[in-house]
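BUG-418 | component: ligand-complex export | severity: low

The export step for beta-D-galactopyranose jobs runs without errors, but we want the raw record kept on the ticket for reference. Input record follows.
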Amino acid sequence: MKLKQIGCAVSLAVAGMLSASTQAGEVEVLHWWTSGGEARSVSLLKQKMEAQGHQWKDFAIAGGGGDSAMTVLKTRAVSGNPPSAAQIKGHEIQEWGRLGFLTDLNVLAEADHWQTILPTVARDIMQYDGNYVAVPVNIHRVNWLWANPKIFAKVGVSVPTTLDDFFTAAEAIKQAGYIPLAHGGQPWQNVTLFETVALAVLGPQDYQRAFVDLDLSLIAGPKMVEVFTQFRRFRDYVDTDYRGRDWNDATNMVSHGDAAMQIMGDWVKGEFVADGKVLGRDYVCVPAPGTANAFTYNIDSFAFFKRSGEDNKQAQYDLARAILDKSFQTPFNLSKGSIPVRMDIDLTPFDQCAKDAMSAFKQTAATGGLVPSVSHGIATTSYVQGAIFDVVSQFFNAKTADPVKAADKLARAIKAAM
Ligand code: GAL
């Protein structure tokens, strides 16, 4: 057959997959959504697929932030047995795309107008070499501070909006006998806190220069020394059992009134919602101290591995379609704590945190305050991210820590990973 005829045959075959599926297929989906709020959210996707007659094989690997899940995925892929779909996001989409594992979703993107319904940052991240190879699920804002208003009322301090306010309030809360900051000392959580402090100290432009452009003179320079100096101060306001704590256990400390605050992405809200907590009464959300003019984005997505069997390919297409369907975007994001990745969703059912997040997302996209998360794999490669995880965690956990040495060490570690 001539090339043109083959091209037409492929398009017709794939176009046939865009019609409502009649064949039952199987999708094995790797993800790390195992906390209360996360599991409740991913079950909505499972239900949607089963309603279409497909079999959902849940390949859940516990471990917030996904490091363990990615390790297992690499093992499965190297052994020639990847799952149908995997929660792969940010720069790792490029890394998997480059290896040639991923199915392209261009026909689906064309049919469902991804170019118009998705914001630029989401469109760009989902493409490798000009082809769509992943489908975005949501937009999480990382630079949030979650606070228990009852503790603040008891102590008589206000929820902080600047770094100075944070340390003043934290000291008063500590003196009153509460844990000021609930924190889990896992590398990804340490870097979530670090990047949020960096955003406050550096501002969005220098944050981009440091963690996207990897400007080593900035990273080794006095501004980053100040970031490490401020970051280290947070160590005085976490409890002694912070190391290794899971993020959702830290959230429970705020939820149950043992700790006053948590600095973490809005998947935290998914835990509050799952626990029946009420916004305003049990928790409040404010931009992390010093970052109200910025939005650190973390976009969850799924990539699809090349499969045999028309029914299994159909199931993959149906899964990708279901994820961006309006009827899924609303209930999923309400449960997950994120905002829809489609820009044409009515936010009336969403709470004020989500409405504030969406307006901040749109406003910062216009002003330059929209920045990619380092800790969640959006800003840079997994290799550079690993170097940052190591240096930042060692610094935060060390008995004594020298910010000048830390900045220099960070620059050297990043240079070695570039
Ligand atoms: C992030 C992920 C979020 C949330 C969080 C905690 O990397 O994008 O959806 O699950 O980890 O596990």
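Assignee comment: Attached the raw record above. Residues 187-211 form the longest helix (25 residues).
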